[in-house]
Design goal:
The protein is of the alpha+beta class. It is built from seven helices and eight strands; from the N terminus they run H-E-H-E-H-E-H-E-E-E-H-E-E-H-H. Strand 6, helix 5 and strand 7 form a beta-alpha-beta unit.
């Protein structure tokens, strides 16, 4: 499955990327299930400058983690990923997004069940929206997964940063059972796929 996904992204995109613009930091916002796991994976990639865990896509202002966990606020656990577009492209981040989780699982990732664990891309502009739709359609057409992708592609509106103890969670709590038995194995798989694009 991962090989098929990578092959799709290795081919030239039909959407032109302007490599001549001056270096600027850009932001991608993704939800791939538990934000601890999302954060740990994207932190590994060369060109990613900062990953912040939080909540997006809901209807309650300033929600707490406990509120989001009830599934009633409409938020997804998500990460704001600040990156240097000269070092890593949005296309490459999308590739990582589709490898980082199973985008065919509706409102869940493994044992984490609920709308807060849904797969979602919160696009910041028209280009991000076009690229996200393009790759979802391409992956579905190529049947890269056994089931159809259910990832939501929705506009970025408001992002609420999660409580401090959620930030950099895996690195600060690697001995915790969830980190040791769930995140660690997922992270190792992710790092194998992107071994040539990891930070030193």
């Amino acid at each position: 499955m991962q090989i098929a996904v990578c092959a799709t992204f290795a081919s030239p995109s039909r959407i032109a990327v302007n490599h001549l613009k001056p270096a600027t930091l850009d932001t991608a916002t993704f939800a791939t299930g538990c934000f601890w796991c999302t954060e740990a994976k994207f932190q590994q990639l060369k060109g990613v400058k900062k990953v912040t865990s939080g909540f997006a896509g809901g209807h309650v202002a300033n929600p707490t983690y406990e509120q989001v966990c009830t599934g009633t606020t409409g938020h997804a656990e998500a990460c704001n990923i600040v990156y240097d577009s000269k070092q890593i492209t949005y296309d490459e981040l999308l590739e990582a997004f589709f490898v980082a989780h199973d985008p065919t699982q509706l409102n869940r990732q493994g044992n984490d069940v609920g709308t807060q664990y849904r797969s979602a891309i919160f696009f910041h502009n028209a280009v991000q929206k076009e690229k996200a739709n393009y790759y979802v359609n391409k992956l579905n057409t190529e049947k890269a997964y056994k089931s159809k992708i259910v990832t939501q592609i929705v506009p970025y509106t408001v992002f609420y940063k999660a409580e401090g103890y959620h930030q950099n969670y895996y690195n600060l709590n690697s001995s915790q059972p969830y980190c040791k038995y769930v995140i660690q194995s997922e992270l190792e798989k992710f790092k194998k796929v992107f071994k040539d694009r990891l930070k030193k």
